[in-house]
Structure formats: C-alpha cells, structure tokens
Amino acid sequence: DAGVRVTLGGSGFRSAEGQATADSNSEESASKPLGCGTAKNRAVLQSSGDFLCFLDADDVMRPRRVEAQLGLALARKGCGGAGCLVGSCIVREPCDAQPRYTAWLNSLTQEQLLLQRFKECTLAMPTWFCARAVFDAASGFLETGPGTPEDLDFLYRHVRSGGSLARVDEPLVMYRYHEKQQSHGVSANSIWALRVEELESGLLAHLESFSLWGAGRDGKRLYKSLRPASRQKVVAFLDVDPGKLAAGHYFDREHGEKVPIVEWKMASEAKFQPAIICVKSGLHSGFENNVASLGLQEGRQYWHFN
Fold it and tell me: Which of 70, 82, 213, 214 could form a disulfide with 163 if both were Cys (CB 3.0 to 4.6 A apart)?
C-alpha cells in the first residue's frame, strides 16, 4: 500500500485533507513560517509506511521513481549500519538552470556520493527515498526554521551514524529552479560552517597532517575557519599562481601564523598528502587536468572541499 502526505513549509502546516498539522489553537502556528524541516517531520509523523519518498511541491517525479528507488533500497537493506539513503539523477526546469551544480550531481560515482560530501549535499533532497528506520535513526530533520540547511545536516548525521548513500543512475525527478524556492533563503555562511564541521570531525581529526590545494580566497577562508588543532596540521598551501609561489608563504594576521605556499605538483609527495582541494571544479582552465595528471587516488591522497 502507498499513501501521500502533503504539508506546507510556509505559514503553519495543513495536510492534504485540509486539517491543521500544527497547533490549531496557536495564532503563531498559522502565521509564522516554521521551515521545511518541520514540514517534512510532520509529514513523516502522520504517515504510516515502511518507506518514505520525498518530493518538494514545485518538483515533478517520473512514474517509475518509487519502483526504481524501492528496488535499490531493498537491495542495500542488508548492508548494515544505519541503512541507506537513496537518491537519483535529475533533470532541470528550466533545462539550463545551475549547469555546473547539475552536472556535478549527475556525474558523481557511487563512491563519490560519500567522498565528495564536504562540497555539498551529494543527493538532491527532492530525490530522497529511504526506509522509515533510516529517517528515525537520524532523528528526523532540524526544526530551527527557515534558512536552515536541513538536508545537508540530515545527510551528515546519517553518514556519521554509519548510514550509506546510493543513487539510481537515471533522472527520476524534474528539479525546478525559480526565484521563490526555499533554498534561496538558506544562509551561505550556515552551509559553510556545517561543511567545515563535517570536514574536521569526519576527516581532519583522523589525520596527522594535510595540505590545502588553493591559496586563493576559499583556501584561505577554510584555513581561518579551522580550529587551532586542525590549523596546526596544515603543512602547506598548493597553488599554480606564480605570484603566490614567488611570495613563498601565506601569513594569517588573525592568528599570527605563516604557512608555506608550494607548487601544486607537490601534491604527489607523501609529505603533502592528503590534499584538501579548495578550488571550484569547472571554473579554472586546466585544473581538472592538473589533478588527473598526478594519478592520485581520491579519498586517500586528496579530497574535494570546493
């Protein structure tokens, strides 16, 4: 059996049957936006199925979505841990919306769904499908109101608890882009802070040393965002810019720390591994070719942050 539960993440919440899902006697619940996380939690609370299929109101799913994702979820059910969060590839409306982001999402391998989680949510939220037990194990979404990156936070908590990620490699959802979508209200600083926290707890805490590939804006910002214990593990910045290489170092005035800047090819040496890449893909000519030319293994000798 399948059921559909509809909730609205704007002013209060009303189910598909028209009944208030927030406190009907509360004037605040009828006027104050409580956010997407709260809406999704209420929908799950009122549902009864063993599996959950999420879809935002402004998106469209293909007829075989449930069949395809249920099949993958059942196939991964015996993998242990906290279960599997399943997504799918997407198509966009309009078709040229966020081309770099869309291409990145659709091109990730199954392994990269985990490896590249520090960059962004590797499974688009409108494509999520999972067993109810997976949702319960992560304790649902944050209910801190509009502007919360509740999808990224959920994915990180799911992974930390031993959960796995998988994707049906066909476009099962049309992910619409428009100026009023809720994701525009999410603070970029909140996402950055969440990503840094996951990078430190999920990777850097287990390393003795590492380098930062990219001595530009994002590389320096990441360095400054790290906790002191993590900053002390940075052996160098790697870069291609002759000007930065000529300077020889980066001086962080805020913390009074000096970090060497060396040529990017040094990433092939064990001393500078792993390299945390702070260069955005698809924006810098030749960058991807430079990474590939070193023959490094992702997830061991380098990790993507940007």
Answer: 82
